[in-house]
């Protein structure tokens, strides 16, 4: 159980690291949003499920309840994260932030 | 009916979240759930009383694991792009529009959220039947709507 939890948390941290790297490397606002909002969706869920498993390592009804609450956080992240990403993207498009396209690159 | 259902869902959630079963905390829960039900019973069961969310529950249970698998696959693709040394050659951001054949608002929202959750694509806007999607790569844009729309339709649309 602890090994599975550790594996999930490490995998989550890997995806978070990739997300941070993506925010630093991508060329413009929208592509950075991809990296920020996206790697978070999987990474956060992996870390949260890992923590829930870790918490279940010594099994008891109250720990089961706590794990359920932790899993509920994952569900909320799943609903809230895309909503926020969508809202930020649309706001940026409305105020006219120019997207980076392939043509900008010197050939 | 909607009020009673809202109240019981709220109360179940309260009990699960609080984890305290003495009379004081339970009565606090009943009072606050009643208040919330009075204020916002129209929010949880919005329109369409005939086809309740209970009916679409099995469909969603089939759809969610598939969606999660898609998220894992797409995340690995985005991770590959991020870590690639010549990353700027791989990405080709573009804005695409497509029309969906989904009818119910809930299935449109589910499709939009799924598209946004899947790395590489963000739903910018839904207007009537037209989705505006911002995609990171050409191949991610071409994959839309495709499989995901069919699966959402199977999960949530009334079978006709």
SSE topology:
The complex is a heterodimer of chains A (107) and B (160).
Chain A (H helix, E strand, L loop, with lengths): L1 H24 L3 H27 L5 H35 L12
Chain B lengths: L1 H17 L4 H22 L8 H31 L3 H4 L3 E6 L5 H13 L3 E7 L2 E6 L2 H5 L3 H11 L4
Antiparallel strand pairs in B: 1-3, 2-3
Helix pairs in contact in B: 1-2, 3-7, 5-7
Count, helices of chain A: 3
Average pLDDT across residues of chain A?
81
Structural class of chain B: mainly alpha
Distance between the termini of chain B: 27 Å
Please count the beta strands of chain A (DSSP E, at least 2 residues each): 0
Overall, the morphology of chain A is: elongated
State the share of residues found in helices of chain B, binned by percent: 55-70%
Flag low-confidence runs of chain A. Answer: none
User: Rg of chain B to the nearest angstrom?
Assistant: 20 Å
Structure description:
The complex is a heterodimer of chains A (107) and B (160). By secondary structure, chain A is mainly alpha-helical. Chain A has one domain (2-100). Chain A has 3 helices and no strands. Chain A has helices at residues 2-25, 29-55, 61-95. The radius of gyration of chain A is 18 Å and the shape is elongated. The N and C termini of chain A lie far apart (52 Å). The model of chain A has no long low-confidence stretch (mean pLDDT 81). With 160 residues, chain B is mainly α. Chain B folds into 2 domains: 2-44, no CATH class; 54-156, no CATH class. Helices cover 64% and strands 12% of the residues of chain B. Chain B has 7 helices and 3 strands, in the order ααααβαββαα. Chain B has a 3-stranded antiparallel beta sheet. In chain B, a hairpin with a 2-residue loop joins β2 (121-127) and β3 (130-135). In chain B, α1 packs across α2 and α5 crosses α7 (146-156). Chain B is elongated and about 65 Å long. The two termini of chain B are 27 Å apart. Classes of the chains: A mainly alpha (107), B mainly alpha (160). At the A-B interface, α1, α2 and α3 of A face α3, α5 and β2 of B.
């Amino acid at each position: 159980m602890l090994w599975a939890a550790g594996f999930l948390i490490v995998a989550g941290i890997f995806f978070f690291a990739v997300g941070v790297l993506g925010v630093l490397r991508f060329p413009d606002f929208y592509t950075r949003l991809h990296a920020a909002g996206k790697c978070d969706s999987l990474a956060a869920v992996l870390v949260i499920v890992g923590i829930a498993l870790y918490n279940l390592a010594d099994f008891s009804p109250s720990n089961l309840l706590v794990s359920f609450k932790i899993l509920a956080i994952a569900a909320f992240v799943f609903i809230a994260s895309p909503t926020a990403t969508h809202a930020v993207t649309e706001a940026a498009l409305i105020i006219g932030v120019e997207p980076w396209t392939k043509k900008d690159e010197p050939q | 009916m909607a009020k009673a259902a809202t109240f019981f869902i709220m109360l179940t959630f309260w009990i699960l979240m609080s984890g305290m079963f003495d009379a004081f905390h339970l009565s606090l829960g009943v009072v606050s759930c009643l208040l919330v039900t009075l204020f916002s019973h129209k929010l949880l069961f919005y329109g369409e009383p005939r086809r309740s969310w209970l009916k679409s529950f099995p469909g969603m249970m089939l759809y969610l694991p598939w969606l999660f698998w898609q998220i894992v696959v797409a995340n690995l693709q985005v991770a590959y792009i991020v870590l690639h040394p010549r990353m700027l050659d791989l990405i080709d951001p573009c804005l695409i529009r497509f029309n969906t054949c989904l009818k119910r608002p809930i299935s449109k929202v589910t499709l939009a959220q799924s598209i946004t959750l899947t790395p590489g694509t963000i739903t910018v806007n839904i207007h009537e039947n037209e989705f505006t999607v911002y995609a990171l790569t050409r191949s991610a844009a071409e994959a839309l709507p495709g499989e995901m729309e069919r699966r959402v339709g199977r999960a949530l649309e009334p079978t006709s």
